[in-house]
Please model this.
Amino acid sequence: MPKKPNACEKPESSPDTKNMDTYQYHRPTSLAEALEARRQEPEARWLAGGTDLMVQLRNGRAGTPPALISLRHVPELKGIEDGERVRIGAAVTLGELALNESIGRRFPALHEAIAAVGSRQIRNVATLAGNLCNASPSADTAQALLVYGACLEISGPDGQREIVLKDFFTGPGSTKLQSGELVSAILLAKPPGNAGATFRRKARVAMDIATVSVAAYVEIEDGCITKVRASAGSVAPTPLRLTAVEELLMGQAPSQELLQSIRSLASESVSPITDIRASEGYRRRLTGVLLQRSFEALFDMQTAKGCTR
Model:
């Protein structure tokens, strides 16, 4: 009978880990136990799906933490709860979300963004919370969650608090999580019937990170835009809400002239870099084009639904 691993046992080296250090490994079975393990090991790293963290550990970008704390067996972090708000546990995988019909129906932009993340094998391991906590400027799910006005439930040694997602990111790889805290859930208000949302991205090849990604959300009533959100990724140090575009659209009636204004204003509202994937100028133009097409599709969709009468 194979030996059952101890929660704090150091794993033996194998050919797959020969370029990595070994770590103390904690496998808590409750949120309280996980937080206590982190209290005892303040420099430990949380491990959920590990699709980003394990790569970072292998190439040295994550330093050398003394321990890893797995969140895979913490029941408080599992499941999708359909209450006043939809609560997505931090340990829910992207694969689970992709198969959830209610998520796909209520939050189509999130469903589209999830489908763009990696491969099916990666989505079956990676988590939504992990994609956010990695705090990459190109995190695809962040764009969709920003336009849905998502909040994060954060648990730590001092209890729980909430933070609006747009205030969560502070820089590349940096968030407002404090010492000992973790994201325990993503919270989403249910959109009304007159809402529409979409996600678009452009990458060099399949499964590459986005050159540019955008998301758009709109509510239209009596021919006027009553609520709007827009976001863009890979064009700033953090996933970005395009507030200037939102202010332009709010209260307006959809028109071709408005769509042209979206294109130019979106291009001016970002601060991209030039790197191996694209130039700064190309990213600016692409942001405007993708966002214009996104809102054009939403306006047409809302017209078909009769929301612009």
In short: Residues 15-67 form one domain. Confidence is low (pLDDT under 50) at residues 1-19. The longest helix spans residues 280-305.
